[in-house]
Specification:
about 230 residues; alpha/beta; Rossmann fold; 2 domains; four-stranded parallel β-sheet; 9 helices; about 15% strand
């Protein structure tokens, strides 16, 4: 399946597994880096395959890396994979190209391990969980910190996202986060699609971190650095 919505030579090129993320990152671009051009490729088939298998298979890992490398070869200064389920594939692909290939949630994980040692991971897709746990442990090791990770899976609300009932999806996540926050220092939303739920959690006593803004800020930093 060919990628959609690509403009070659963009400062930052994104690989999404849902088209809804295009406007999320365009909006962040208008706010934080209006001088940078953005490009988007949508590959819903990649996430569908991961959901079907329950994990990222070797074949799926290869397909993801190929899609990311293609964006890099299209002239982007920075490439970002916005699907947390496929994040490990993004960092693996980075070894094959001279431009940065980022997973959207790495910067969030780095911030999480600096914020607290008891980290709660909230996810709506079970296949995302192992990758996010591994990511957090990796960030903790880099920072020289010991962390305790507790996982909360809200797979019952994922159907709402698939049906396009986004308001109900965000509210469903937010309603479950109150209980999840009881015994952790910080909550991490494992998927970019969950980010708007954080705004509904103002009464929580712990920080709720989501990846889009934090990851985008890192991509902008690298894109601007490359331009000089």
């Amino acid at each position: 399946m060919p990628p959609a919505h690509i403009r070659h030579g963009a400062a930052i090129a994104f690989l999404h597994t849902a088209a809804i993320h295009i406007e999320t990152f365009n909006e962040l671009g208008r706010e934080l880096a209006p001088e940078l051009t953005l490009a988007h490729a949508v590959r819903e088939d990649l996430l569908s395959a991961a959901e079907k298998a329950g994990f990222v298979t070797p074949a799926l890992d290869l397909k993801t890396q190929e899609a990311l490398v293609a964006l890099a070869e299209g002239g982007a200064r920075v490439v970002v994979c916005t699907c947390s389920t496929l994040g490990a594939s993004a960092e693996a692909a980075a070894a094959d190209v001279p431009v940065p290939i980022l997973r959207i949630d790495r910067a969030m994980a780095d911030l999480a391990v600096k914020t607290g040692t008891r980290i709660g991971v909230a996810a709506c897709i079970p296949a995302t969980v192992p990758n996010t746990q591994t990511l957090l442990r990796s960030s903790a090791a880099r920072a020289g910190r010991e962390v305790e990770i507790t996982t909360f899976v809200f797979d019952d609300v994922w159907t709402l996202f698939r049906e396009g009932r986004l308001g109900d999806y965000y509210e469903g996540i937010a309603s479950r986060l109150a209980e999840a926050a009881r015994d952790v220092d910080v909550l991490v939303l494992a998927q970019a699609s969950m980010a708007p739920a954080a705004a509904l959690c103002v009464a929580l006593q712990v920080p709720v971190l989501s990846s889009p803004r934090i990851g985008f800020e890192e991509a902008v930093r690298l894109a601007r650095q490359d331009a000089h």
